[in-house]
Amino acid sequence: MGPTTLTTRRVAGARVTAALFGLLLVALGLFAGASPAQAAEDDPYRISGNVQLDGEPLEGVALTVDGPGGKQEVETDAKGQWRVGVPERGETYVVTLDEDTLPEGIAVVDAEDDTPNVKEVELGQGGRATVNFFIGEGERNVTSFFDQFVQRIIQGISFGLMLALAAIGLTLVYGTTGISNFAHGEMVTFGAIAAFLLVGPASLALPLWLGYPVAVVLSAGFGLLLDMILWRPLRRRRVGVVQLMIVSIGLSLALRYIFQLFIGGGTLQLPGSAEAQIPLFGAVQMSVVDMISLVISILVIVAFALWLTRSRIGKATRAISDNPSLAAASGIDVDTVVRVVWVVAGGLAGLAGILYAYYRPGIKWDMGAQILLLMFAAVVLGGLGTAYGALVGALIVGLLVEVSSLWIPSDLKYASALFILIVILLFRPQGILGRRERIG
Amino acid sequence: MDLLQILSNTASSILSPATIGYALAALGLAVHFGYAGLINMGIAGFMAIGAYGYAISILSFDFPWWAGALVGLGGAAIFALILGIPTLRLRGDYLAIVTIAAAEVVRLMFLTTAFDDITGSADGLSGYHGSFRASNPIPPGEYGFGPWVYNETQWWVRIMGLITLAIAALVVWMITRSPWGRALKGIREDEDAVRSLGKNVFAYKMQALVLGGVLAAAGGVVYALPSAVSPGVYVTSLTFFVWTALLLGGAATVFGPILGSVIFWALQTFLSNVLPAMAEAGWLLGLNQIQAGTLRFILVGVALMLLVIFMPQGLLGNKKELTFVK
Predict the structure, then answer these.
(1) How far is it, in rounded angstroms, from Cα B104 to Cα B117?
(2) B326/A240 CB distance under 8 A
(3) Chain A residue with minimal CA distance to B107?
(4) Is this prediction's ipTM beyond 0.85?
(5) Where are the domains of chain B?
(6) Among B85, B97, B297, whose Cβ lies nearest the Cβ of A253?
(7) Which residue has the higher pLDDT, A124 or A237?
(8) What average pLDDT does the segment A40-55 reach?
(9) Confidence (pLDDT) at B204
(10) B232 touches chain A (CB under 8 A)
(11) CB neighbours of residue A388 within 10 Å
């Protein structure tokens, strides 16, 4: 395997896998002293390490250690460990892992490094050093492009539906009140944190079937609370939409840091987020949580669509989105409907928060802010203020984010969605399902 | 708690490069929002382009520092042009969403490992000071009095920052009093009325976007002058902080953004010193020091909300001159 193929493979395939599943290799001083494999016993100082993949030791991986005292070759033993003796300390040695001796489809991955299989180590005055390589799955070699593509599409639909749950609330609020609610991301985070407090093993530890619905209800209550103490008084004062937008930015900042105050800067996990992947066909796989999340998203969106088209309040919501003054004149109680919209938006955002906590995975104080712009992209793509537009836009954004990472580095996948947003506005500023008059 | 030290730190922050950088960015935002009515939520992107343009042209292309700064400003002007063409015909809230998205794209491009050789990805860039420090005419030593004692490098950064700020404020002050500035304010109040007078509204808005963007990029360069460029700085929160500083001082004024930035940073420094000290003394209901540190950002958010609701014209603004039209 030449260096060219290695590079290509790494760039194209291994990045995501590296970030998500890949990793590993923990080897430490702990192991270093434990079991000597093939040590050049006469030399006084040692360089050692441990080669593992997902906790499984890799045997027979060849490494070369170069430095004072000449070049030495060593292979890992049945426990995945290797060590060599070297004659000098206070010197620099170069350790090279021969990637040809790794199992098929496996590579040394390190996004920060162009040649991750070559490491320099400074042997200090202690005379011992440990060298670890990050081994991950070089996906492209084992998975056909088609399988990868299908996998991405499934993940994209799953992410898109989750995004739709959040974006529908955002667009409903925009349609009925004119607020571009920058604090919507924090409503998403609220749902995830509420869920964690209810089902987390360290807090209430409710069963999941009870805890998550309660978390959604709490999120809906949060929407109601915000409307009661903030948005309704501002409606009464007839504050302009630009001011309301900046108020929502202030609210977003305040809420975000309040969350950080309570849960800290780290990541919390909901139970079951490390579920095993179930192979479907070929190399396509999904976890149980992903499947449940997909089903829940679809059910809730269908229920929401029925509510919006069949129920009185749903119809009133659409009437207000179309023309608030006309709706008020024909006897619709705008204030009540707007309150219901805030409650629905809060509940949907909370549910999306729980699902997003599994998708990421993990709960963080700024997780909502991370997808806020994707929600806006979805809403603007579909057409601001239209509920179905948000659904279509969210699916497009979800697919774009997932599928684009087949070709571009995965740390740019959100950028692709935002870039498309800007391009679409060039050609169709009202969005896909929006109407011309809305853009002003 | 050493109150004297805290007050000294607070007073010192008035002259810090961060304050000057914010003041420049807020001044650019005043041109955008205060005078032209453009809701630019991507000010962090302009600052990032200024800072990275400066650092990259010095590190990768061996430019002298002044040429690097010009590259940063030029990059921001080009960014404003690219951004303006699709968005300036759109309504205000669309512009807000698109600019914030564009700023995120810019940040992600600087953050990605794909261009690690040039941008340093997550580590950012540093070590570009040689040329700037070599141009320093001040002999080595410590100068100043009271809380404002700095060495020659620190003074050089501050002096160049203040000169930039003074020039920027003068330019903004002059052009907003010119016929061009009056047309701009007219567009803010009623775009259709100005269009019916035969003015090219799009061109005016574009010129304002470029001018404000270049000022914001100058803010980014000054912000990056003393230490390093880190992609973690140019997040959307930075945009919101600059907005807070602007609205605090007064959006449609020249000195409001400067006053707002000074107050913003003095308060931030004061709180970041005093809150952990209070937590340590046990006055904050059992919050630990880290939690006390986040408290000040909560206060920024609450302050922004209260400002917009109760004092939208800011400290120096004229209540009759509505900055929030529609």
Answers:
(1) 21
(2) yes
(3) A415
(4) yes
(5) 3-310
(6) B297
(7) A237
(8) 68
(9) 95
(10) no
(11) 18
Q: Scanning every residue of chain A, which has its alpha carbon at the shortest distance from the alpha carbon of B85?
A: A426
Chain B residue whose CA is closest to A428: B86
pLDDT at B225: 92
- Pairwise CB contact (< 8 Å): B97 & A380: yes
Confidence tier at A10 by pLDDT (50, 70, 90): very low
State the maximum Cα–Cα separation within chain A, in Å, rounded to a whole number: 95
Give me the residue from A247, A261, A369 closest to B308, CB to CB: A247
Strand-pair category, A72-75 with A62-66: antiparallel
Find the closest chain A residue to B100 by CA distance: A373
B308 CB-side CA count, 13 A: 28
Domains of chain A: 3-141 (2.60.40.10), 145-273+281-439 (1.10.3470)
Residues A336-374: b if buried by 16+ CB within 10 A, e if exposed: ebbbbbbbbbbbbbbbbbbbbbbbbbbbbbbbbbbbbbb
Q: Between residues A11 and B244, which one has the greater pLDDT?
A: B244
- Three-class SS of A305-367: HHHHHHCHHHHHHHHHHHCHHHHHHCCCCHHHHHHHHHHHHHHHHHHHHHHHHHHCCCECCCH
B126 has a chain A CB within 8 A of its CB = no
Residue contact B98–A422, C-beta within 8 A: yes
pLDDT at residue A353 is higher than 80: yes
Q: From the CA of A257, how many Å to the nearest CA of chain B? A: 6
- CB-CB under 8 Å, B111 with A377: no
A112 vs B contacts (CB less than 8 Å): 113, 116, 121
Characterize the bridge pairing of strands A91-97 and A284-287. Answer: unpaired
B307-319 pLDDT, tens digit per residue, is 999 988 889 888 7
Judged by a CB distance cut-off of 8 A, whether residue A420 touches chain B is: no
Please report which confidence band the pLDDT of residue A127 belongs to, taking 50, 70 and 90 as the band edges.
low
B138 close contact with A: CB closer than 8 A: no
CB contact under 8 A, B324 and A240: yes
Q: Is A59 helix (H, G, I), strand (E, B) or coil?
A: coil
pLDDT confidence band for A436 (50 / 70 / 90): low
**pLDDT tens figures, B180-198:** 999 999 998 888 999 999 9
Contact B113 A260 (CB under 8 A): no
Structure tokens at A407: 């070709």
CATH topology for B3-310?
ABC transporter involved in vitamin B12 uptake, BtuC (1.10.3470)
Interface contact B105, partner A, CB < 8 A = yes
Q: Which amino acid is at A213?
A: P
Tell me whether strands A45-50 and A128-130 are parallel, antiparallel or unpaired. parallel
Q: Say if residues A57 and A24 touch (Cβ distance below 8 Å).
A: no
The C-alpha angle with vertex B33 and arms to B230 and A434, in degrees rounded to 5, equals 95
For A114, the token pair is 């162009």
**Residue B117 CB contacts under 8 Å (≥ 6 apart), including other chains:** none
Partner B contacted by A257 (CB < 8 A): yes
pTM for the full predicted model: 0.80
Residue A249 with chain B: CB contacts under 8 Å: 240, 243, 304
Rounded distance, CA B27 to CA B214, Å? 10
Give the pLDDT of residue B26. 97
Under-50 pLDDT residues of chain B = 326
Q: Do B304 and A249 touch (CB under 8 A)?
A: yes
Structure tokens at A177: 């009140």
Cβ distance of B111 and A414 shorter than 8 Å? no
Nearest residue of A to residue B110, measured between CA atoms: A412
B143-194 confidence digits (pLDDT tens): 988 889 999 999 999 999 999 999 999 999 999 999 999 999 999 888 899 9
Q: Residue A114: its pLDDT value, please?
A: 60
**pLDDT value of residue A440:** 40
Residues of A in contact with B92 (CB under 8 A): 242
